[in-house]
Amino acid sequence: MTQYVKPPLSIDEQLDQLSARGLGIGDPHRAHFYYGAFGHLDSVHFATSASQHADWIEGIFKEIQRSKEVFIRHYQSKYTSPAFPKVPIWMATEIMSLGSLSRFYGALRGREQKLIAHDAGVAAPVLQNWLHVTSVARNVVAHHGRLWNKELGVSATRPRSVGWSEREARFPVKRAFFLLLILRKLLVATAADEASWRDRVDAHLKGGLSSHARVQAFGADTGWDTHALWCP
Q: Which of 47, 76, 209, 228 has a CA that sits 20 to 30 A from residue 149's CA?
């Protein structure tokens, strides 16, 4: 099988290529703040220590090597520099576990965290907490644990924005319904069919939340299905 041995483009070359293909780059100098396709491999780009970064990268490499994704296998068979399992960041994030993604975000510098959190519509510390909470919930589900009538081992952080205070949203931050509110908020910023997702979950929940006791066990409250955070 033919292998591609050409070296990766420099950041300047990448910017020129993207511009030639029609991408508008309003501030090329700001674009240099980002670190190219393989910037995640260098600990100097992170706020954590070199040893913490090395531990994170080791985990990412294991996830890449376990992956059966076609694009990962294609990259492995075609590219030799840098050596596999070193892959571009856009490939690495596709196969990262939620736990690895949470650690990735937590290791970024404050400016980068704020840029990402702004797109999600929350403050950076809130997004960092939410990524951790969703990774914990994912692990419970992956090991066939239950979320019903159970508190997670971590507390979700309430944003300071309107609607999220304990007075306005009387939903326990360690229970499953608050987790659904988090997912909906994140999907609003990142998915095209957030309303469709909410409607499907809504229909599923209404079949089970048939009594006030069940509603409370789930971490919801009376009127949950018309609350502004769930059904604006």
A: 228
